[in-house]
Amino acid sequence: PTTSPPPAPASAPSPREDKKPEAFNDAASVASTMVTNTAPSSASSAGTEGINGTLPRARAPVVPANGNRFTAQDINAFIQEVGAPKTDTVDDPALAAVDAAQEAVADVMSDLQTASRADAVPAAEAPAPAADGLAVPERRKLKQSMAELDAWLEEDRGRRGQGETRQKQRHEALRSGRVAPVDVVTAAIYEDDVVLSGTGSEHKVVQDLRAAKAARKKGETPPSMHPIADEAKKVAPKLDSASLVEVLKLFASARHEDSDLYLRLLGEIPMQVRELSPASLVEAASVLRRLRLREPTYMELFSMEVMNTCRKFDRDTRDTASRAVSPFSPTQLVKMCNAASLLETKWSTRVLAVVQDAMGKLIPSMTAEVCEMVHPCTVLAVMNDALKRQYLERCAATGAGIVASRFEADSAAPDINAHAAAREAQRRRDKRIRNVYTTEFCIRKESFSFFSSLPQEVRAHLGKLKEGAEQLPVEESGGLAGQVAEILSQLGVSYRMGVNCGPFQLHIVAEGTNPLGEKTRVYECNETSAYYATEHAAVEEPALTAETKLRQRLLQRMGVKVTVIDAWQWRGMSEAQRINHLVKLHSFQ
């Protein structure tokens, strides 16, 4: 007997079919019924052609009205026919019924889609599915952090705008002659009645520092600086730009060694750098040079601010009849360049171009004292050949570096105050007069072709400097040189201290004890001031300063063989080890 095949298993509905609402199926059946009932049998073949799209309409054939080519009138007529309402183009009642059924189906589908979107969970609020048990982080904290960053940026823009407004007002006051062309804040630092911004503990810090400085001037024992330093670290964010520079300068003048303190105070300067006046900017850089803190970030910041200040000054004074040529005085610009050169700051090309332009404008107004302040490292690192020539011509014109008679005898009794002022001025000049002699030696030894191209009067002036180098005043020896000299005297070795050798002064020149060896031995005692300050002095050996490296290089060019005694190594030795160390050094000839 013939067996009937088993009935086919009912296929499981797809997930999409399960999720279809009943209203959707009812609407589809109603729409199909409407199409079947309204379309006549004669139009069924025509309706099947548009199952997947819009049913075709009965339109007139698109042909030219006259001739074989379309004209502008034909194109306009065709466009009007396409854009006309549907009722105007439908002539067959059967096709009109089909169009009505399609519009009804479209309305039902649109209502269903709107209802499904309203019932669904919004994508922004729906939690993301977890993968392998990992929760997706919320974006709320990120939005909060971004809002805080926006608030900080807005506050920074506001403070920068206030600083630029203050600078503009000060420049206008300088041009109008209402104030003297000096920095009032810096000049008032040493006055006792300066009113500082802020209240409370920041006032006490500044007052304590001023009291300690006054005690040192009177020869009294100053108070301990550690409690003042701890308090200064706490109030650093409350200090304004002028107070920050003053506190830095007072701590540096007290010889207080605390790198963390200086870095904490310097960390507040970038937020207020636009509020710094030219004099305060120079003072901040000079403090870093005095402390031997080689911080490239802050020095680059100061150099960029120097460039911005010079450019802004040029824009403001371009259309005015101002006699000022730079926002910096010659002394201020020289101090800034000295600080950057001695700290081995890497000048960018555009910053160096602006500084050289400002230097070229200020060199003609330099006095002999300012010319003597220019360090040889500045001449080598900042000045190009044109500026070197201009600077040397100015030195020759002002007689910079010429040592006159110290104190000539006078028949009349000298005034005590005038005599004390003259001695103080001479003492300050003795500290920097060697700069001109060292510059002359560098140019003559390291760039003789440039030296030969100088004018005759400039070479004559440099010749006088070369001849007078042996009469330079003797500098005081450091503590390390005194300790080495004391041990040499205990060993019975003859020595001399403070011997001039060209533009330099040798620390110790000892006579040799080996008849077959050298007759003399030169000891170069590198104090702690010959190295950059570092926080890791106990771990790594500090680097030599630019001034010390220049000195040793030029001594080598002169043929002087030196024996270096390092202060960091010397401190770690006992008295017996120091004697044994010097005996080995002096015997090895």
Structure notes:
Helix content is 58%, strand content 5%. It has 28 helices and four strands. It has a four-stranded mixed beta sheet. The longest helix is centred in the N-terminal third of the chain and has 37 residues, at 140-176. The chain is elongated, with a radius of gyration of 44 Å. The termini are far apart. Residues 9-21, 34-56, 86-90, 120-126, 178-199 and 406-411 have low confidence and may be disordered.
Secondary-structure map with pairings?
Blueprint: H1 15-18, H2 22-38, H3 44-47, H4 72-83, H5 86-89, H6 93-119, H7 140-176, H8 184-187, H9 201-217, H10 225-235, H11 241-253, H12 259-266, H13 269-272, H14 278-291, H15 296-316, H16 330-342, H17 349-362, H18 368-373, H19 376-381, H20 385-398, H21 416-432, H22 434-446, H23 448-452, H24 456-467, H25 479-490, E1 495-501, E2 504-511, E3 520-526, H26 546-557, E4 562-566, H27 567-571, H28 575-587
Parallel strand pairs: 3-4
Antiparallel strand pairs: 1-2, 2-3
Q: Which descriptors apply to this entry?
A:
28 helices, mainly alpha, 4-stranded mixed β-sheet, 589 residues
Strand order of the largest sheet: 1-2-3-4
Write down the overall geometry.
elongated
Strand residues, percent: under 5%
Alpha carbon gap, first and last residue: 129 Å
Q: What do the pLDDT scores average to?
A: 75
Helix content: 55-70%
Number of strands: 4
Task: Count up the helices.
Answer: 28
Instruction: Catalogue the unreliable spans.
Output: 9-21, 34-56, 86-90, 120-126, 178-199, 406-411
Radius of gyration, CA atoms, in whole angstroms: 44 Å
Briefly note the structural class of the backbone: mainly alpha
Largest sheet: 4 strands, mixed
